[in-house]
Structures
1.
Amino acid sequence: MTTMTIARTAHATRLGNLTIEASAFGLTRVAFTADPTAPTTDLGFGRAHAFEAGRQIDEYLAGARRNFTVPIDWSRMSAFDAIVLQTLSTATGYGETISYGEIAQHMGRPSSDARKVGGALARNRVLIIVPCHRVVAADGALTGYAGGLSVKRALLDLESPELRLAL
């Protein structure tokens, strides 16, 4: 059994504190945290990915970036979850929203698989970079987000200031 070194850094943003983790292959986690002093490790090849993710997130929040180029290590999630997250990433662009059922349809599955898609999105370990904040209910309503609905709304407003979705 091979162990993989994970680099970790704490990253403060205007929307809250993030923990960013990466392996040598790419990001493994971007998550909101209440602890601004989360332990930082600079070990392994993943540190460049972790720090690059922080830089790109800062650019995105400043309105200077629309796409992320830092690689993601998909090996730490199930195949289904990885497909859902990859589909979301390719099916929606900056300033767009999509429903759970529409993601299922993009995957070649029936829209009735919306709950399965929602479960995979709830397990998204790479927030912001994999834009699950762009997923809304079939009626356009905002639904859950690991960073909270106020953060989801702020991210959607950042991407599309003319579209103000109600909470």
2.
Amino acid sequence: MMSRSNWAILGAAVLVAAVGGWLQHASQRARVPDGVQVTQAGQIAPDLALPGLDGKEHRLSDYRGRRVLLNFWATWCGPCLKEMPALVQAQSNVGKKGPIIVGVAMDDPGQVRTFLAAHPVNYPILLGSLDSPGTSLRLGNVGEVLPYSVLLDENGRVLFSRRGVLDADDLKAWAAPAAP
């Protein structure tokens, strides 16, 4: 049985942890510029229009009817480059009519083209806006950390988002057929 002083220490530790979590959340929200809507899980993603490497504008709504994994990355981001082979393999496993990965490069277009010439991928690459608010911020990446991924359902609703490298379970969840 715990003594009164041990209960007091435990209570203080829980209180400190709760306050720390709240402060972390508040500091992340403080990074969002006034007037910027940040999409949360369960909401429909904004119909962003982003340039592709093909020079054409592409909208997120172009992918409606398919599950979409948006993967934000940059050529200078080591963890981003580490996860790219797994993304290429995952896209290969689902075929052309299934879910699709859409890479969103948060980088200089010239550097992206040079990188992809040496390391081609089998999914489309769009160019995100580096100006504030960044493209990934609008889709929930409050810390604007890369890599960052957002899974959209067939209607463009955010199912989940993840900061950091996706693991095998994340990619299996992305590729799994939607529940009826």
